[in-house]
Design goal:
This protein is an alpha+beta fold. It contains 13 helices and 21 strands.
Length: about 425
Amino acid sequence: MDKSNLKKHQRSREEFYKRLPDFWADLQNTYYALLDIYPITKLEVEEIHIITEQIGEIYDKTARLMRQLPDDIFYLLGYSKEIVPFLRQKTMESEGIIRRIDLVQTVDGWKHFECNSDTPTFIMETHHVNGFVSEHFNVENPNGKSEKQLSNVLNQVISKSINRLEKPIVVFTAHGDHEEDWKTTQYLQSLYHGESQLVPLVELQIIENKGLFTPNGEQIHVLYRQTYPLEHMELDKSPDGTLIGLALLELVKSGKLIILNPISSFLLQSKAVQSLIWNLHTEGSDLFTSEEHNIIEKHFLPTYLEPDYFIENNLAYVEKPAFGREGDTIRIIDGDCNQQSKQNTYQNQVMVYQQFAPLPKKKVMTPEGLIELHILVGSFLIKEEAGAIGVRAGNLITGNESCFLPVGLIEHLEEK
């Protein structure tokens, strides 16, 4: 591409995303949202939706089993002694409100990488922004009904949580100094039709065994904390050394506060849960039906808590932390072609070993020109139903430098 056409694309992208001031088209002084379309067919969308719901059912069934397991098993899966006492609590029918199932298309079909069940990101991009980009390229938006679906579920869950309260205080919260987190939470609040407040995490006030309060002293009944992970919460301390995160969880346990996503969503957040599922599958556990065993065999990747299986069978594999995020502390062991993530901040966590499945590549238009990037599909599960689909395009290890690549419907595979 010559310089004049590249400059034209850069201007078009800048002008386009200026129309969406509540969205973060750029992050950390570099581009994030691409002005390009990843083509996808209706048949592919339907297939992804079916697989997403099937995988969700397997996780939900596993969650019911996990609540009956002894504490020692939770420790093996990476959960701390401090958090385990809260994990068996279930405050709503569904295991979560918003979950994201990551999938990769391989020569053997769709394979499941991991489930982000506690604090999945990529919500505004897929449910809201994708529609504007699809319209720009004059293609149908595969996520056209997803925003209404998300809003309906959000309102149902919150309304059910507060239906017996006279003057409920509903607060949406996130780190105020983190643009992506804050604007994601702001977007979710906009989908809720009831009265609510948006309050930075640092301004919330907790009184042990009594309640959580707004800066104005109002007791909070529902706290929506979409981007505030429970594994961070358990470490939070006040200046005087009070373990405020655990104190907050005690409020939830005692019924003085409802948090959403609920604690049950964290039950499935550990990537080591996939090793539990794979182990139950290989042992032929009657927890799963024969159909579910077939789904696991077809879509799940072999996953263990030790690398022995892959070493003995000379197979490439990935080492990743149970609660890692954004591609941090990941190693790909593939003979002489080993790769490692730039950030390695989760080295002290329980490690999970999963068979390596390379991400497919596609040339996409970026502010730097056409670049071949690796493609990872994120498919949302809204309660138990499939929701929006999105694509992250980046390096072989999908990290926080990966880009948002909008998706658009095409008629036939030949057009891709």
